[in-house]
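Homework-ish question, so no full write-ups if that breaks the rules, but can someone show me the predicted structure for this set?
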Amino acid sequence: MSEAVSQRDQQRERVITAAFELFAERGYEGTTVEAIADRAGVGRTTFFRMFRSKESVVFPAHDQLLAAIEARLTTARPGTEKVALSEASELVLEQYLHEGARARQRYALTREVEALRERERASIFQYERLFRRFIHQWWGGTPDTLLRAELAANAVVTAHNHVLRAWLRGDVGAEEARIWFRDVIAELDATLGWEPEPQTAKAAPDRSEAASTGMPNTGDGEGEPAVIVVRDAAQLERMLPTIRRMLR
Amino acid sequence: MSEAVSQRDQQRERVITAAFELFAERGYEGTTVEAIADRAGVGRTTFFRMFRSKESVVFPAHDQLLAAIEARLTTARPGTEKVALSEASELVLEQYLHEGARARQRYALTREVEALRERERASIFQYERLFRRFIHQWWGGTPDTLLRAELAANAVVTAHNHVLRAWLRGDVGAEEARIWFRDVIAELDATLGWEPEPQTAKAAPDRSEAASTGMPNTGDGEGEPAVIVVRDAAQLERMLPTIRRMLR
DNA sequence: ACCCGCGCGGTACGCAGTTCCATGATCACG
DNA sequence: CGTGATCATGGAACTGCGTACCGCGCGGGT
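A: Not a homework solution, just the prediction itself:
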């Protein structure tokens, strides 16, 4: 059984290797799927059973990585969300560092083939989506925290890609990249403010404020005016998303 | 001459209309390019002369919009970068609002067709790239400002898309979207800190959430709460600039 | 030895996108 | 007004990706 699995993996690896060889020799667009299958000693049909498309063979570890990220994020407990997020993003970096030369060849390919660039963006977007959902749930899953969750997830992914590209270009070594990435994440952690800033972690005081005006916050009665009481401009801005939601 | 140009545009518009009609009738993947060309009364070859691909016809205004953004950004002078950036991003929003129903149909299409989602991401990435380059140059174009420029550009685009999606879903009207977007940009402006180093140290002290009793108030005396009465969400959005000014 | 399941390869097909060429309209010029 | 050049158009043929279908052979179980 384990032998069978191993053989499947070996076959898969042969296809990937054949593909990267041919891409290096004739370029991506100059290589047909049939040529890859021939060199790997499999049929064209089998290629498409292993990889959804010609592009997919360039990102062979994507699905597995995505699953690993999700697994790491789901182990988070209240209070450990930040470290979970940090480590999950490090998984991506580690994956690339582990792939080594192949990651760099992929970088070369993506730089010159538009279709592969698009495909890579789609991959990145999937990581980002996991992060976004995780952060959003962490912050309560309410509509008013969604934008900030999107911004935060985006910032993490952007920072990651910044460091990753430096390594892919050879500007920094693997260990430097790891350290730099931790620094960057720490910096983001400090500058983003995460929970504190404009958002409704303090839902209770918000409600009591609304109630103190005598207007039930759940009532969306038509034509009924809403009364809002704020202390200053800053509080208004903080409460705006909530106010908008309640008025909707 | 102008007549010839007009005829070309009319022909192009016929093709776009035919495409959207057929996509609505048979779905995107159920529609062949030949069918689009037939309905528009042109040859298949002509279709591919007007649009690089079947996907491109779904985003017919993209190139023009990209050029408009670049044009707006290049008019920036020292000191006017922020407003240039803000207005350039508003160009994108305005483009969608202007397209109206077609933008919403595109939204429906992109939600169900993976290829179109990828394509849209590619479009967004191009806007984001313009913003990134602009911000980076603005901040000196040195390597040490690049990451922050990437983060800033990303934040602008993410915020924009957040508001845009709300309009596309019909959650807010066009005017609300405009106002909301300006608010969001203003908020980003305040929290990102832009040029200064990575910090938001401002850390507004929001302690005394305790008792904000509804005291009617006309003056802007410090510590004194303000009472706002609005009829509905739309009125709130219309009045927001005024409210902000009074609270300042 | 026989049967069953299943992965594999081969074939055929649809369709996107490209290339090449013939045709017809428009325009410049004699 | 006729003639030739230019250029957009449409048609035809081709490549190659991706899918559907089918038959074969290599297991493993009884």
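Now go work out the reasoning yourself. Hint: Residues 4, 32-34, 44-45, 48, 52-54 of chain B lie near DNA strand C (CB under 10 Å from a C1').
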